[in-house]
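Project outcomes to date are best conveyed with an example. Our students and postdoctoral researchers have been running inverse folding experiments weekly, and each run begins with a structure described purely in tokens. The record below, which covers 302 residues, was selected by the lab manager from last quarter's runs and is presented without edits.
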């Protein structure tokens, strides 16, 4: 697959997810709902329909495709995951958290609306994600829906992303060891990326060993994603990133690149991509897109 084809496929996934989320977040109440408050809905749409690479949805779709999963089902689970991811960004940007004014080149939700609207928008996106998984429109048997619900809850909650954010906030008041940084980042960033890969295996009804292989793949590229993010925070500018640059260093937060340097980080990223490629080698051409995503994650400039 050529780079042009890779970019085209990635864009197609992002467009499909964006379109589906736009339809789901329409003004018409769904069955069982009473009403959809206009301002809350606008805040939710601002937090979700604002571009972005949609990397996590792409991982769901391509992992499911590798195991022959139903594409429309994978797209819905991808949309659910993106709701979780975007809720986390809306809340992370709040003054009580990272206190950011810009996200993806636009005002953050609490700046475009207010803090209360941002909190409620995040809450609503979080709960809506599980509604998507459970709904009749998501064509999966009850057992696999339950597996997805459990895996997504654990990836997003206390022992995953939310817990990682708590550890990240603690890092502003004390110096973390390398081991603590690794655990924090595996939770805050890696857990949802790991879920994205595991979800594809669940959708495709993969065997336990194959599911475990995709979990490991997700862990590898989750670490690569965070390493690249931390490296960009050191070397890129805010215009390139579409968000504030250098904020970790300004707050004294420890990262692996700040501990080991740029050269070490770049070597580590190369090693992670090589491990990811080796892990998926048994799947041959079916894994081409996932392998290219791993390389892209490690090399991206924003």
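After processing, the design step wrote out the following sequence:
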């Amino acid at each position: 697959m050529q780079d042009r084809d890779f970019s085209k496929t990635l864009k197609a996934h992002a467009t499909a997810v964006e379109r589906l989320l736009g339809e789901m977040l329409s003004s018409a109440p769904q069955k069982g709902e009473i009403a959809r408050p206009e301002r809350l809905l606008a805040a939710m749409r601002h937090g979700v329909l604002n571009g972005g690479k949609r990397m996590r949805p792409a991982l769901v779709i391509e992992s499911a495709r590798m195991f022959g999963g139903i594409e429309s089902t994978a797209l819905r689970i991808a949309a659910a995951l993106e709701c979780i991811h975007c809720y986390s960004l809306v809340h992370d940007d709040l003054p009580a958290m990272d206190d950011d004014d810009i996200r993806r080149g636009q005002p953050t939700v609490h700046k475009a609306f207010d803090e209360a609207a941002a909190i409620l928008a995040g809450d609503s996106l979080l709960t809506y994600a599980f509604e998507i998984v459970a709904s009749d429109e998501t064509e999966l048997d009850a057992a696999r829906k339950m597996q997805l619900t459990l895996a997504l809850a654990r990836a997003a909650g206390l022992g995953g992303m939310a817990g990682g954010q708590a550890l990240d906030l603690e890092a502003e008041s004390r110096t973390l060891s390398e081991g603590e940084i690794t655990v924090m980042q595996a939770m805050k960033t890696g857990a949802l990326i790991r879920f994205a890969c595991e979800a594809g295996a669940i959708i495709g009804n993969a065997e336990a060993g194959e599911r475990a292989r995709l979990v490991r793949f997700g862990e590898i590229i989750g670490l690569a994603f965070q390493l690249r993010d931390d490296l960009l925070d050191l070397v890129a500018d805010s215009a390139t990133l579409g968000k504030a640059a250098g904020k970790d260093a300004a707050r004294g937060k420890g990262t692996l690149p700040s501990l080991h340097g740029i050269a070490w980080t770049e070597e580590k990223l190369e090693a992670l991509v090589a491990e990811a490629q080796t892990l998926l080698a048994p799947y041959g051409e079916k894994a081409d897109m996932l392998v290219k995503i791993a390389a892209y994650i490690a090399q991206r400039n924003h």
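Strands lie at 102-103, 106-107. Residues 145 and 233 are 37 Å apart (CA to CA). The training component of this project remains on track.
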